Amino acid sequence: MRKKLIWYLILTAAVVVINFFLPRMLPGSPLRTLGADDTTLTEIERAQIYQAYGLHLPMHRQFGVYLRSLFTGDLGVSFSRRAPITTILAAALPWTALLSIASTIVSLIAGSLLGSLSVRLRRRGRDVPFILTVALIGSFPAFWVGMVLIAIFGVNLGVLPIYGAYSMWSGYTGIRHVLDVLAHMVLPVVTMSVGSLMIFFTTMRAGLLSVLGEDYIKLADARGLSRRRILFFYQWRNAVIPVFTVLMMHLGFVISGSIIIEAVFSYPGLGTVLYQAVLARDYPLMQYSFLLIALVVIIANLMADLCYPILDPRIRKT
Amino acid sequence: MNKKTLLIGCVIFVLYIIIAIAAPVIVPHDPIRDRVQPHVPPSATHILGTNDIGGDIFSELLIGTRQSLLIGFTAAVISLIIGVLFGVMAGWFGGWLDECLTAITSLCITIPFFPLVIVISALVRGGSLTPAVILGLLSWPETARILRSQTIAIRERQYIQYIRAMGAGSYYTLTRHVLRALVPMAAYRFILAFRAGVLAETTLSFLGLGSPQVISWGNMLYFAQARNAFLTGQWLWWVLPPGIALMGLVFALLLVSYYFEQAADPGLER
């Protein structure tokens, strides 16, 4: 366990270092050429830009400034949004968390149920068309599903909001506000779930099939228990572990995926912050939002590692 | 299921390749030079209408196949080369080399893939192959990890032990026997990387971070989104076709991958 924690510390340190060197080392990097490229700038303006980014300092001093900013939490001011970067990120993080958790739950439940259904259909040899249908749905690019859902439900039917996380200027409070937020979540969550449905479907199905030949399943069958009972009480308990592994590995994927989906729906989460920072060439904001996303993913992985022994007693013994 | 799905997948895939090769000849209009009235709904001359600058959408759709296949293929080749190199070396030689390579692989797996791709794409602006290089350089770790464990398993097999006992060197055993045994898994990972590359290229282009100078499905969707095509009826012929084309390609690759997945892991049941 201690080894695990040390590994995660190294991982965090590596991500912090990579985040620092990435924009400074890449060829044609804008941080380096920010002032030098533009011939319309005067010497003084160029010096001011370098001063603002701390680029006039030698590399090791720049790294020191970077580290200090991380520890004090004072990340400077975003020039594209004219607000402190820390405030922007703190406001965005909960929305991404909300979207990621909700879509993970939806795709977990839907994928697991479909996976179980395909195993039940297998006995009657009718599972192939079923699997292919799920695979077909999973082959659509997620952002495209979002665009089509916007066109159908948002514009043509006009039943669901298509923009942002809540109605601005509405002044909703209490339960109206909660309902408003929920309504804004529906389309992004459905879109994200379609993208991750396949993973849970495949894992659940493989997990259920892997224990089919086991003695205790045969025994349960011999005792005359119903198929449904065997499936839900005996096979499921074993399929849960791989599904949980995938769930945790999936968190990184979900947060990655939320960037694109948030961009499509202009949802005010971390993904939108990162994307708009990229569009506005606001490199400090881009760098720090990337760092935050990476750290969230590392923490999710750490939590997964800590949860395994609780879920699977076989690991505890070794 | 497998023989049939492989056949269907291959037929669809070959169809895409034929379209990609023949596209410049069979397009009804030159999508770059032929400009007519913009935002024209579908008609006999323009099967899918025209876009915001008066280009024929159907012709763009055909030409876009090239970029998807090119980027997917290149990214998969880069990803496979690095993955095989890292995975086989770590699995075969073991020791400190294994520990180093495994640590690098684990580190790269943990860094969230797509945010990193976005950041690097924003920093490095290049030609039409740049997205492929970025995607290839970032997507190898999973392949390396799987090939490493397979190499370790193969190393312990009896016939490899016999060959080594007879005095065969590392290089001979690796190139003549181990790599050969890894082919089904490598093929499976290649197809998965191809599929992921195709999807990621379209997503990048859709975000405006791909290659702006080429015609691709992602760029088509980017302009459709930027011109608010889904607020009008235009989305039916501007947004739907590129997505469905992409889905067909991704689905075909998935079908082919099922076959190789089973070849790589015969115990697996589908």
Provide a compact summary of the structure.
With 318 residues, chain A is mainly alpha-helical. Chain A has 13 helices and two strands.
Q: What ranges of chain A have pLDDT less than 50 throughout 5 or more consecutive residues?
A: none
Largest sheet of chain B: none
Q: Major sheet of chain A: size, sense and barrel closure?
A: 2 strands, antiparallel
Alpha plus pi helix count of chain B = 11
Distance between the termini of chain A: 12 Å
Proportion of β residues of chain A?
under 5%
Overall shape of chain B: it is elongated
Rounded to an integer in angstroms, the radius of gyration calculated over CA atoms of chain B is 22 Å
The overall average pLDDT of chain B, rounded, is: 87
Question: Can you give a write-up of this model?
Answer:
Chain A is built from 13 helices and two strands, in the order ααααββααααααααα. Chain A is mostly helical. Chain A is globular, with a radius of gyration of 24 Å. In chain A, 34% of the residues are buried. Chain B is mainly alpha-helical and 270 residues long. Chain B has helices at 2-26, 57-93, 95-110, 113-123, 130-138, 141-155, 158-165, 170-206, 217-226, 235-238, 240-264. In chain B, helix 1 (2-26) packs across helix 2 and helix 2 packs parallel to helix 5. Chain B is elongated. The chains are: A mainly alpha (318), B mainly alpha (270).
Give the helices and strands, then pairings.
The complex is a heterodimer of chains A (318) and B (270).
Chain A: H1 2-25, H2 30-33, H3 43-53, H4 59-72, E1 77-78, E2 83-84, H5 85-122, H6 127-138, H7 142-156, H8 174-210, H9 215-222, H10 227-265, H11 270-279, H12 283-311, H13 313-317
Antiparallel strand pairs in A: 1-2
Helix pairs in contact in A: 1-12, 5-6, 5-8, 5-10, 6-8, 7-8, 7-10, 8-10, 9-10, 10-11, 10-12, 11-12
Chain B: H1 2-26, H2 57-93, H3 95-110, H4 113-123, H5 130-138, H6 141-155, H7 158-165, H8 170-206, H9 217-226, H10 235-238, H11 240-264
Helix pairs in contact in B: 1-2, 1-11, 2-3, 2-5, 2-6, 2-8, 2-11, 3-6, 4-5, 5-8, 6-8, 8-9, 8-11, 9-11
